[in-house]
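Postdoc handover notes: sequence design on the structure in folder B. Input tokens:
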């Protein structure tokens, strides 16, 4: 049995395959299989069967109304038609006029797509889809522009955030009676407090005391940080005994500033909840988050500013004073800008 479509002349003068019952026009525009057209894996097709590209490389093209006689399946699963080389015809050559017109058009195309930034031009028509997104800009330069735009937006954000935290700190220092700095030391990252200190805007200690953890042991990690032992804390008062003094120190204060406020607030609320003590009503604000924005050390990995260690010594009063120093540092920049504006 011969392979390929079995073409027969129809009553209307056209051609039709007796195997798949499609006309010649349907055969050339359909991907439906014909029983007479074999499919081959790459490298297994007969030598006399070629794809259109292979015929072109030999200066040939499929003959007029020549149907494909086989299909080769690529590694990606795409079907590519095969033609009998014996039925192919020579490709019509390009005239000098056509060649001149083609080259002139290509030069205009290259000039149109010339990259505005690096001056590169497309090497081929195929390169237009692979290396150019739009006329006047190659792929690499387009990506570089995007990166530069991202960096500019990030730099504007860093500058804006720095200004905002400086204004925030200056506003706090302008109203010293409304806030105070609070710091705690704990038995662990998730434990109860073992020391608490409250410092006002002038650096005066309003309250400072060790706190008996009441049966909760200090972890070795926490002990290595603040140096407080279970024996030392055993002689300290428990939290309910000093809670009235804490409330008195916070009287009239509407804002509590802490370095890592989320940690101090959670630990203090957890410790108070053990004894069903009344919750603090003050608003918490974080000097650590603000100071991170002030320093502007951006982390692409976290999508935020890197936190800056306080280095206050890890005792409550010392850490509170260190946090106050950070506030003053941020406020000083805003005060300097205001002085420059007035002068």
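Designed sequence:
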């Amino acid at each position: 049995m011969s392979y390929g479509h079995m073409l027969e002349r129809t009553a209307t003068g056209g051609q039709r395959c007796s195997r798949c019952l499609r006309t010649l026009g349907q055969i050339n525009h359909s991907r439906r299989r014909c029983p007479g057209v074999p499919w081959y894996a790459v490298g297994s097709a007969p030598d006399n069967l070629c794809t259109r590209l292979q015929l072109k490389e030999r200066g040939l093209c499929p003959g007029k109304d020549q149907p494909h006689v086989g299909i080769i399946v690529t590694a990606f699963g795409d079907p590519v038609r095969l033609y009998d080389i014996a039925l192919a015809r020579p490709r019509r050559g390009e005239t000098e006029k056509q060649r001149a017109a083609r080259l002139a058009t290509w030069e205009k195309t290259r000039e149109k797509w010339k990259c505005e930034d690096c001056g590169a031009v497309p090497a081929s028509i195929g390169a237009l889809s692979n290396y150019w997104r739009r006329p006047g800009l190659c792929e690499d330069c387009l990506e570089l522009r995007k990166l530069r735009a991202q960096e500019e937006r990030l730099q504007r954000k860093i500058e804006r955030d720095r200004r905002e935290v400086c204004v925030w700190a200056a506003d706090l220092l302008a109203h010293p009676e409304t806030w105070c700095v609070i710091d705690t030391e704990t038995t662990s990252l998730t434990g109860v407090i073992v020391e608490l200190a409250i410092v006002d805007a002038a650096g005066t200690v309003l309250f400072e005391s060790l706190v008996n953890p009441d049966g909760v042991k200090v972890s070795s990690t926490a002990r290595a940080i603040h140096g407080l032992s279970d024996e030392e804390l055993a002689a300290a008062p428990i939290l309910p005994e000093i809670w009235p003094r804490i409330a008195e120190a916070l009287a009239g204060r509407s804002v509590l500033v802490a370095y890592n406020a989320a940690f101090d607030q959670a630990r203090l609320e957890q410790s108070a909840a053990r004894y069903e003590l009344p919750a603090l009503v003050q608003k918490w604000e974080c000097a650590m988050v603000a100071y991170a924005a002030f320093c502007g050390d951006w982390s692409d990995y976290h999508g935020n500013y890197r936190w800056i260690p306080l280095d206050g010594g890890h005792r409550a009063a010392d850490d509170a004073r260190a946090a106050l120093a950070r506030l003053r540092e941020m406020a000083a920049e805003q005060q300097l800008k205001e002085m420059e504006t007035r002068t």
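Context for whoever picks this up: The chain has three domains: 7-90, 96-135, 156-342. Don't rerun without checking with the PI first.
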